[in-house]
Amino acid sequence: MEWKSNRRVLIIGGPKSLSQESLAPHETAYAKSLDSALGIITSSRPDLVIYFAKGKDDSLEEYVLTWLIEGFRGKFLLFDPQNKVEDATTLLQSQVIDDYFSGPIGTARFVTIVKNRLAQDSHFAPPRAMTTFDLFRNLFERGLNAIFFFDDKLDRCVAGNIRAEQITGRTLRELRHLSLQDLCAKAEYTQTLRVIRRAGRHYYDSTGSTALKGPDDSPFRASFTCGVFKFGRKNFVKVEVQKEAQVSVARRSAEEKKWLSKSSLIPVHMAR
């Protein structure tokens, strides 16, 4: 990221006393929630994101994972006025957040902290470690296969790349409201789940074959590779899907009949 004297700052859930001029000359944008912040992060790529924690969890890992996939390369500061965040040390060590501030904070002190961070005489946001940026962003940039990230319970798709949107006929916003079971053909779900659970138990990638729901819920065959990884305090499941070549039922039936007719002509001694 190129060094700039005026940087873009996004404040999520911050105190109402802050104004557009509070951090001048830096550009400041505001979002009420982590959900509403995604569009701003995608379109403006802020250099610094600041979040005021609302609860113990707030699903920070899921949001940061999505930001990284969308190309976020800035810093993320977490303010915890009510000391609700659990295990902030893990969030720091795993690079979910870049700094943590606990306890009540007044507007003047907040502005001082942020301006000091913005005034650092160095490149503001060097690339994150291989375990974060490369894992998430580079996988999605390849674009050869569909890639889905699920929470560890598989009841919600956290993120998906462009190819995932294409083969399912659903936007990322729609995918984020679906579970693995919602995306699998009913008859294939149990076996698909078994393969993924095996990967979780043994900590290595597993491979399998399944049928997923495409546009208009029409099923298609696909091979997949899955693995479980830890980011921050949570485990996530990565499923990489390759759509198999489609053969229509009518064509397959015709080919089977053709093969049977040929096999009936094989001499008896050869058939044995």
Q: How would you describe this structure to a colleague?
A:
The chain has two domains: 122 residues, Rossmann fold, CATH 3.40.50; 107 residues, Beta-Lactamase (2-Layer Sandwich), CATH 3.30.450. A hairpin with a 5-residue loop joins strand 8 and strand 9. The longest helix has 15 residues. The chain contains eleven helices and ten strands. Helix 2 crosses helix 5. The C terminus is likely disordered. Strands 2-1-3-4-5 form a five-stranded parallel sheet, with helices on one face. It has a five-stranded antiparallel sheet with strand order 7-6-10-9-8, sandwiched between helices. It has 272 residues and is α/β, with parallel strands linked by helices.
